[in-house]
Amino acid sequence: MRTPDGYDEAHAAAAVLAQLTGAERHDALVVLGSGWGPAAEAFGESQASFAMTELPGFHAPVAEGHRGEVRSVEVGDHRVLLYLGRTHLYEGHGPAVVAHPVRTAAAAGVRLAVLTNANGSLRDDVALGEALLISDHLNLAQLSGEGSPLQGPRFVDLTDAWSPRLRAIARDEQPGLVEGVYALLRGPHYETWAEAGWLRRIGADLVGMSTVCEAIAAREWDVELAGLSTVTAIEGAPSGIDPAEVVAVAETTAGRLGPLLVRLVQRGLDER
Fold first, then answer.
1. Which pLDDT belongs to residue 88?
2. How far is residue 10 CA from its own chain's centroid?
3. Using the 8-state DSSP alphabet, how is residue 63 labeled?
4. Cross-strand partners of 138
5. What range does the record give for the signal peptide (predicted)?
6. How far apart are CA 244 and CA 56, in angstroms?
7. Taking the CA atoms of the chain, what radius of gyration do you get in angstroms?
8. Quick one: 8-270 is in which CATH superfamily?
9. Residue 3 pLDDT exceeds 70
10. pLDDT in tens, 27-67
11. I need a surface site. Which of 49, 156, 159, 167 has the fewest CB within 10 A?
C-alpha cells in the first residue's frame, strides 16, 4: 500500500490508535455517519472502545446522530475500525481536519473503507429509509475552495473512486440495491427548490454534507472504497426538511443495514 509523505499527524495518531486498541494494524474502516450508530451492534463485541478525542487531531462531532466514539472489532480474521461519527466541513475546521481520521486509519494499515451517511434524495423512485450505493460523486464544495483535503502536487486519480468490486459484492449480498451519484455541498443549510432542481439537472441523485473529502483522502492512500447513503429526506418536498427527522429515519434503518456492512467488509477483505 502506498503511504504518502507529509502526513506526520496521521502517523502519530495511528501510533496512539495502536496503543489504545492493542492492535498493530487494522484492515478495514467503517465510518458510521448521521444516525448510523445502531449499525455498530452488528459487529459484535468491541476489542477496544474510546472517545475520538483521545486520538491526536480528532475533533468531537457536533452533529446530532454522531456519537464521537472509536471501536476496534474483529470480523473473521480481520481487525476493523469503526468510527461512530465524523467531522463536517460546515464546522469550519477545513478539509484536512475532515480527512484526518481516514488518513489515520490508512496509516494504521487500513486498505478497505466503507463510508456511510444520510442524504436528501433528488429522485422520485426511492423511498425514505432506503439505502443507496454511492457509485460516484460530485464535489460541489470545490466551488467554495473547500472541496479537497489535498494541497500541492498530489494528483490523485478519482476515475473509479467508488470500487466497482465492492459495489458488486454489496449488490450480491442485497439484490436490488440501487446505485446513485452523491453530491457534496458544504452546508449546514439545506437546499432551496431551485438548488435541488439544478442538482438534478447536473446528474446528482443524492445530496449531503460529508463523505467526499474522506473519499479523496482514502484514494490518495490506495484504500478501496464503498459508500452507503440512507435516504432521510426528499429534496424539494413541500413539507421541507426536519433535521431531527433526518436522524430518526437513519437510526431506524441502521440496525437493519448493520449485517450488510459486516458481510461487505468480510467479503471485501477475504476476496481481495
1. 93
2. 18
3. S
4. 183
5. none
6. 30
7. 17
8. Nucleoside phosphorylase domain (3.40.50.1580)
9. no
10. 999 999 988 999 999 999 999 999 999 999 999 988 776 78
11. 159
